[in-house]
Amino acid sequence: MAVEHASLGSHRTLKLAAVEAAPVFLNKAATTEKVCSLIREAGEVGADVIGFPEAFIPGYPGWSEVLPMSTEPAASLFVKLFEEAVEIPGPELQAIQEACKAANIYAVVGINERRPNTTGTLYNTQLIISRDGTLLHKHQKYVPTVSERIIHAPGNTGSKASARTDFGCLSSLICGENGNPLAQYSLSLDYPTVHVASWPSHFCPGQELRHAIQVASCGFANSLCCFVINSVAVVADDAIEAYGINQELREYLQNEKTKRRATIIGPGGFTAAGPLEQPAEGILYADVNFKNIIMSKYIIDYAGHYNRPELFAHHFKKYDNFTEL
């Protein structure tokens, strides 16, 4: 799709949508249908961008955070995840593209991606889809986090994690990589207007997801002077049934089920919307204005007047002869 350069006048407003919902656990057909329904719902109220949680189709492998991976049911759950993972291209992508076109909306959708016609290897992937249904970009998570490394391979889609749209640059990152300084700087060079940060439904006991989201996304919005859509998954009963193998774990997952963490953050780190009222899942909306971005860049532009990249270039000389680490 040929995209005109956006007019960044301070009069321009956008309606942003952050999904906080549960997938139909390990069921890609039903979860894809839910994704399309949420896209249409956001389109009906005039939303311009909708963001979805991490690995939403067919669900984040949350059992990897709480179960020994060499035992049951973890092994069987991985087999089911692989069977229900999404191939690109494929019918799931086509359905989402058609929904975006009908709703006249940009979408960033998290999937578990498998390589077509193979029997192994999954990626933690985000798809950026345009208003006319075009797949603008596919971003695979640079480095799987902690136990995800048993589930997902390191991404091979390179450094790029953004696409041009009719309102400027739309970027996206997955969970922990939203705090990656090199990823932030790389995206800053594209001057994102809106960024989608995709998150799972829980970490492991003792780690608070809300704190991680708040710290990473406010820092990102402040440094890049853009709006951040925090899209967060919800623990549902089907996931608890699948890997809540004892009372202690079930109680932990039930408690996580009640939490709502989706937010929309503005330049400087202010909260434009959220979180949703408990215990409902759904879509969080915010109407935002480009003026906030331009005023913030007046003070700080790490891709331009407020940086000295040549002073730090020596840190990367040791990688000059390598194409990958």
TrEMBL record:
PROSITE patterns: CN_HYDROLASE, NITRIL_CHT_1. SUPFAM superfamilies: Carbon-nitrogen hydrolase. GO terms for molecular function: acyltransferase activity; hydro-lyase activity; nitrilase activity. Keywords: Acyltransferase, Transferase. Residues 14-290 form the CN hydrolase domain. It holds the Pfam family CN_hydrolase. This is Nitrilase/cyanide hydratase and apolipo protein N-acyltransferase. It comes from Zopfia rhizophila CBS 207.26.
